Amino acid sequence: MAVIGSALATAAPAGAAPGSSGSAGSGSAVSDARFETLCTPTDPGLTELSGLVSTGDRMYAVGDSGTDDSVWVLDNQCRVTGTLPVPRTPVDVEDMAYSGGRLWLADIGDNSSVRPHVSLTDMDPGTGAGAMHLLTYPDGPHNAETLLVGRDGRPVIVTKEVLAASGIYRPAGGTTLDQLGPGPAPLQRVGQIAFAPTDTPGSPMPVAGSILVTGGAVSADGRVVAVRTYTDVYLYAAPDGDIAAALTRTTPIRVPMPNQPQGEAIAFTPNGDLLSASEANGGPLPPIQILRGATGLVDLPEVTVAAAQSGSSGRGAVVAAGVGTGIAATVGAAAWLGVRSRR
Asked: Which residues form the signal peptide (predicted)?
């Protein structure tokens, strides 16, 4: 699989992305910006770290299935200062966001694609009090590890597909987080995203790990969207705050990430830096990395009324070329995920 994947990687530009038409087009621009080490966690409860949020003076971290009954509170030296119990027993939390003064845990992991519904759980960052909100896909179960919440408060889920482009979903009818009830609330598919393989090291599987979507985040002002794979992060301009339009209509900036054992967590700080964290994957706890000035890497044009209106209607475009290449490369990923435990 490594040999096949390496050959396939030469068949399409890394992180290729189309224009607004959605047809194969120019590749993503690659930045020479580099992450550096912020700090290294020491608490063994963080070995499965999959979701991360930064509020400036502290970080909130959560592990995935089996370690997701608590949220860990850390200072900016990675020292644990407390824990918060998750208010409802989750199945597989894979990401986390911060919106409206609350933490939002994305219980959206489903490696076997059998769950009739997934959920978002809101939590008070001081007490941990909160509630679960069920969601259902319109086209059957999906595995996902990415939750994006913009300044409009509308949650966006990006699925993690092995043999297809990753779907972009959000609640039907324009429902925002504060409008979600216990549910289940229907989701609607509003687009898809796919990446061509890259040669960036740092995946638990060769080549295929560079195309699987493992996490995401939105900047504090809602104008930059980050979507990561195991090896790279893609930064999209969303000047009008429309996440789906940004993912389906714009060409991203690709930043190769540090070699991480199983990188799944990413978060913006309030001042525009980008944090990256990884599961230990059987080894020592890896450091949390920081890309300083990440939002400054993205060209953010001034928003006109016409642009804002047209940006809100975009849907369904494929975000990267080389989908066929990516599908072939993920044959190895399918085997890896088939034997992977619920993580």
From this structure: 1-16
Establish how many alpha carbons lie within 13 A of residue 72's alpha carbon, considering only the half-sphere containing its beta carbon.
24
DSSP three-state, residue 243: helix
106, 163 Cβ separation under 8 angstroms: no
pLDDT band at 47 (very low <50, low <70, confident <90, very high): very high
The domain containing residue 306 runs over which residues?
A: 2-339
Structure tokens at 265: 């967590």
> In this structure, what CATH number is given to the domain that contains residue 169?
2.120.10
Angle at CA of residue 56, ends 50 and 58, nearest 5°: 55
User: Tens of pLDDT along 181-204?
Assistant: 998 999 999 999 999 999 999 888
State how far the alpha carbon of 140 is from the alpha carbons of 4, 159, 168, in Å. 31, 12, 14
Q: What is the pLDDT of residues 123-152, one digit of tens each?
A: 999 999 999 999 999 999 999 999 999 999
pLDDT, average across residues 296-312: 60
- Which has the closest alpha carbon to 106: 266, 233, 259? 266
Written as one string, the DSSP assignment of 172-198 is: GGG--GGG--SSPEEEEEEEEE-----
> 269: helix, coil or strand?
coil
Residue 289 scores a pLDDT above 70: yes
Q: How many domains does the chain have?
A: 1
Is the pLDDT at 331 greater than 90? The verdict is: no
β-strand 29-30 against 253-256: which pairing, if any?
A: parallel
- pTM here is 0.84
CA 42/CA 266 separation, integer angstroms: 19
Task: Kindly report whether the peptide bond that precedes residue 184 is cis, defined as omega within 30 degrees of 0.
Answer: yes
